[in-house]
Amino acid sequence: MAAEREPPPLGDGKQADFEELEDGEDLFTSTVSTLESSPSSPEPASLPAEDLSTNSNGPKPAEIVLDDDREDLFAEATEEVSLDSPEREPILSPEPSPAITPITPTTLMAPRIESKSISAPVIFDRSRDEIEEEANGDVFDIEIGVSDPEKVGDGMNAYMAYRVTTKTSLSMFNKNEFSVKRRFSDFLGLHSKLATKYLHIGYIVPPAPEKSIVGMTKVKVGKEDSSSTEFVEKRRAALERYLQRTVKHPTLLQDPDLRQFLESSELPRAVNTQALSGAGILRMVNKAADAVNKMTIKMNESDAWFEEKQQQFENLDQQLRKLHASVEALVCHRKELSANTAAFAKSAAMLGNSEDHTALSRALSQLAEVEEKIDQLHQEQAFADFYVFSELLSDYIRLIAAVKGVFDHRMKCWQKWDDAQVTLQKKREAEAKMMLANKPDKIQQAKNEIREWEAKVQQGERDFEQISKTIRKEVGRFEKERVKDFKTVIIKYLESLVQTQQQLIKYWEAFLPEAKAIA
Amino acid sequence: MMEGLDDGPDFLAEEDRGLRAINVDLQSDAALQVDISDALSERDKVKFTVHTKSSLPNFKQNEFSVVRQHEEFIWLHDSFVENEDYAGYIIPPAPPRPDFDASREKLQKLGEGEGSMTKEEFTKMKQELEAEYLAIFKKTVAMHEVFLCRVAAHPILRKDLNFHVFLEYNQDLSVRGKNKKEKLEDFFKNMVKSADGVIVSGVKDVDDFFEHERTFLLEYHNRVKDASAKSDRMTRSHKSAADDYNRIGSSLYALGTQDSTEICKFYLKVSELFDKTRKIEARVSADEDLKLSDLLKYYLRESQAAKDLLYRRSRSLVDYENANKALDKARAKNKDVLQAETSQQVCCQKFEKISESAKQELIDFKTRRVAAFRKNLVELAELELKHAKGNLQLLQSCLAVLNGDI
Prior knowledge:
The complex is a heterodimer. Chain A is mainly alpha-helical. Among the domains of chain A are: 138-276, PX Domain, CATH 3.30.1520.10; 313-518, Arfaptin homology (AH) domain/BAR domain (Substrate Binding Domain Of Dnak, Chain:A, Domain 2). Chain A contains 15 helices and three strands. Chain B has two domains: 18-172, PX Domain (2-Layer Sandwich); 200-405, Up-down Bundle (Substrate Binding Domain Of Dnak, Chain:A, Domain 2). In chain B, strand 1 and strand 2 form a beta hairpin. In chain B, helix 6 crosses helix 8 (263-333) and helix 7 runs antiparallel to helix 8 (263-333). The chains are: A mainly alpha, B mainly alpha. The interface between A and B is large, with 56 and 57 residues.
């Protein structure tokens, strides 16, 4: 009872290779043959734009992965093709490459075979990853900066507007360098749209910075003190990191909403991001429902990889939280140290003033100066502690929450599939009953229903396999990014510590002769 | 004496040399040498072994030791203060009471929280707290020793009988701590004294030297008090920050042992770095405490002792002037003139005696102060440099390894 399967969208010449494949053995032999027969290098540039339009008709979730795979490989290729069709929201570009195509049907077909293990595709996954890596080299030539926060408006309706500057050589953008003004809710709106489109199919969408009612109110009310400037700076840096992470994601980079956010001068106000709006309340309700559901889903995890990964992320989450707490304590203590050093410096200066031995008096004043400079050093170090180290950790804590969310979506997907199977079973039983009772019209209805549910079961199975595959890839990418991020940040942080020590040496070296000069 | 720069476990020796040299004119006098050769910390008291080496005839032996407790040091100090003969000298300030409460509390809390942390963390923290306890212990020993050395170095005070008893009498001096009544008496005495001090200080001094000293000391004392408090707070913040490094190191270690990717080596290396750098930061904080905070604290007490001297002198001056007035009155009335004369003479002698020795004491005070500050500031700068360079090297070598790995 194979359902009608649309052949994967390929270059014209390849369609013939993918007739409906029935049983397991045929499946493999045919793929083997296609593997052998496939030409070597992809020629993205030559592919006609019409391919895209074929894809825009009734895109199935199953194809998303395909397209994205190819798109990942040939990100360069995507530069040359303009993605104009607005309908194809979740699916993007595309160039099929002959070298890849043979692989994809296998993964799509695998679920049809009774075994639910997806071990076979895994090998292919890895090789694809390797190819991706080569292609991904330095493809993402896009730099985002968030700067110039300025207050717009007055009173409680005031808000901060940030300048978002993009520098890129990717041709999907209209210009090479451009900037727009955005407010915080715009960022939240962008994230909301991306999350709605991509989270449930397994993409790790970077989370947006958190709202802060207290912080924002202070700014609105117009308090021009250091805590509100600190707040604005913290937010600006967080928004910049958020955008940089988002554009690094090859799939999200293609999203038209993202492009619109970066490019267009006017953006419709994202009211749904307000906490107390209708959408906000709906979100809260959904979150609660999700939490309850999560507890009740009992999934038969057939793939140890997922279980292992989930456990790893759980551990990582805990450890990062602990580390983050320690670093925050360090920031706090260093700020305290800075304040106390400044107070001591003043006190030492006073002491130097009242000391009546001239040389000692001078030395004490020098000591006061040294301590004042050291206070500055401490402040700068605290700054580095926070913006370099602490914020990285909090970003990752939230990212891991997004990863966990994606795993949860997979569970929900499985639930849906499982439910469909249960319903199908029930329909079959109903049909059997009808057969016994011999009611021809009811039988027909039952048969229709059975067909309907069989389709749903297959769809469910496909979705589940898709999301599993996507997650594997996403997790692989995430881990790589994580390693790179942490290494870069930690090295940067250590370098800041080096600088501090070098300065300290300078200051004390200058003071020592003064101390020795006391006669 | 100046090599207090090694960072070996010879902590006590370093402090010894440091603190002792702060305010003792270094005459390694064969006539009388005192030190604290040992100390024992029991539950709530500390027992000091006072060791004396002397060639003076009034001691039964040339070398001997006794065990003394903090209260006995206080008794000795108070006996000096109450002795009229010593009114003209700066009495070396009494050592502060040994205070292990904070440290003990922390150790207790650690014991209670043992279940909630990993074994490595617990061992690390325990070592840390034990080191802290040891440091406080050593400090209190040093401060008691300094007091004794100052007395031993003072040409007049070293001959004091009570001092000799303190050094030699090898049984308990039965110096009980002051009971409530006596403490209350002390309290009133202090109040009277400070009120009196205010009155007495209103009297302008004819002598420029003393006038200058008075204004100077008043201001200096207040500022040293402020600086000492702020220095204390600074040192403590420094220590808290160093402690944070400890926790960060532990967390990084945990991350390193649990991570499955190649970054685990990275974490472990950085965790090691934090552990080492933390030790250095803790030493920086300890050295600042020693060279700066303790110095200021000591001079806070010394400047108070100097103020007390000036007060006593002013007091005797007022007495002298009153005696003069009384003599004039007696002469005018021609009654009890002889008595008034004798009393006036006594006051005059007392005043002159005090003034003379006070002048010398105050000059010595300045010399000692300048020398002590110089020594400590130089040592502070040298230690800060040493630690910063050590830190820098650690960081740079770690960065080299990490960058090489990437």
